[in-house]
Write a structure and sequence with these properties.
This protein has six helices and 26 strands. It is an alpha+beta fold. InterPro entries: Peptidase_S1_PA, Peptidase_S1_PA_chymotrypsin.
Length: 421
């Protein structure tokens, strides 16, 4: 590239972002029919328009059979019906067939188990406690658990239990009717959600920032992953920055390689330089050689998992490359500036032989830092770099080529077949 071209790159990228109810009664005879339970029709099963949810259907069975405590399938695939009074089994069988259809009943009949509470009691208890409980930090769900004949309160972690217990005490409910269980957080099924094994293109968190996991890699037999150096606590130099996915405290790795920036020589006066904004993290969880792909720009739903069969160390001007980031999803750009010397706007950092891919529409945003850059072919991604910045006029994203990353970090991408490539 000419000196004029390089100066244009530096000028045009000056604005590059671092894309860094009541108590439960124990007696069924004390239960009043639930007013909103659908009435049983003698003409056949209730239609979906008449019963909107599973719980409404179970309430309808309970309205016909006051001893009904719910039903579930056990590990043998048998339909188990819980009853306060075992003698209600024939009536429960008829009511289930009426509400759900005859096909719901197994050929070899129902299995019954005793119940302390009816389904209506449990549903009323759930309705009473849910507004207060699900407003608590760390609360995940409430549910009528037919297997235990109790209401389940799901929490992310044990630390949330004391707060939940205080709410239950304040509400003065029958504590024996409630189980608190750890279920972990339920996260969106997109690149900002939690995934195991980890792959390229997913959100990660390091202290003070959200970034994107670039790609899985091998370093002298150690399995890990690569993201931007500026996503660590100290840009350039190892400080054992922890990385979490999707967020703290779900640790996925620790920074082990992050070369220092240097000055002098061909590095511009007053600046510090490297060949790539990259760091290697040793993984503490399972890793897959894949890259997440979304349906398009700023759509964060995962549409496919791209296999990584190969790599291109240094792409060329005019080629179209893609990236997947935690903020803008999967976007693309045409390489306009190839192997340019590029300043990172607002910082003292300069990168040798880096690339800028432009697009008519926005193709990068803060948080995309560390995104894998790749060539897209069918359901595979040919790795070629690591995004570190984005800008506008025109819309663009900047990335370091894979060759430079390999040389600085001493790594190989972890590829299809679970080998370095």
């Amino acid at each position: 590239m000419s000196k004029q071209g390089i100066s244009q790159v530096v000028a045009s990228t000056a604005a590059l972002w671092l894309v860094g109810c009541g108590d439960v009664s124990e007696r069924a005879k004390e239960v009043e029919p639930v007013s909103h339970a659908a009435e049983l029709r003698t003409g056949g099963p209730l239609s979906p328009l008449q019963l909107q949810t599973l719980d409404e259907a179970l309430l309808a069975v309970n309205a016909a059979v006051p001893s009904f405590g719910g039903m579930y399938y056990d590990e043998k695939g048998r339909l188990v019906v819980r009853l306060v009074q075992a003698s209600a089994a024939p009536a429960a069988e008829r009511a289930i067939a009426t509400v759900f259809g005859q096909e719901k009943l197994p050929v070899d009949g129902l299995v019954t188990e005793p119940a302390t509470r009816t389904f209506a009691q449990l549903k009323a208890l759930q309705a009473r406690i849910t507004p207060d409980l699900l407003s608590q930090a760390g609360a995940v769900l409430t549910d009528v658990d037919e297997k235990t004949n109790r209401v389940a309160v799901g929490i992310e972690r044990a630390e949330a239990r004391p707060g939940i217990e205080k709410v239950l005490e304040r509400l003065a409910v029958d504590r024996d009717a409630i189980d608190i269980v750890e279920v972990g957080p339920i996260l969106p099924a997109n690149v900002q959600g939690g995934w195991r094994p980890i792959t390229g293109g997913l959100q990660i968190e390091t202290p003070g920032s959200y970034c994107t996991l670039g790609f899985s890699a091998l370093q002298a037999g150690t399995l890990g992953f690569v993201t931007n150096s500026h996503c660590t606590q100290t840009q350039g130099g190892v400080d054992s920055t922890p990385a979490y996915q999707p967020v703290y405290p779900d640790l996925i790795g620790t920074e082990t390689t992050d070369p220092y920036y240097s000055s002098g020589g061909s590095c511009p006066s007053g600046r510090i330089c490297r060949n790539s904004d990259s760091a290697f993290f040793s993984a503490t969880t399972s890793v897959n050689p894949l890259v997440a792909m979304t349906p398009g720009p700023f759509n964060l739903s995962i549409s496919s998992w791209l296999e990584v069969p190969s790599k291109v160390l240094y792409p060329s001007q005019g080629q179209v490359v893609y990236k997947t980031g935690r903020t803008s999803g999967t976007t693309s750009g045409t390489i306009q500036w190839a192997c340019a010397t590029v300043n990172s706007g607002g910082t003292p950092h300069t990168y040798f032989c880096n690339y800028i891919a432009t697009s008519p529409q926005q193709n990068g945003a803060p948080g995309d830092s560390g995104s894998p850059v790749y060539f897209l072919s069918g359901n595979s991604a040919q790795l070629t770099g690591l995004m570190w910045g984005a800008g506008s006029s025109p819309w663009n994203f900047a990335f370091a080529p894979l060759g430079s990353i390999q040389n600085e970090l001493g790594i190989l991408p972890y590829c299809q077949g679970f080998v370095g490539c």
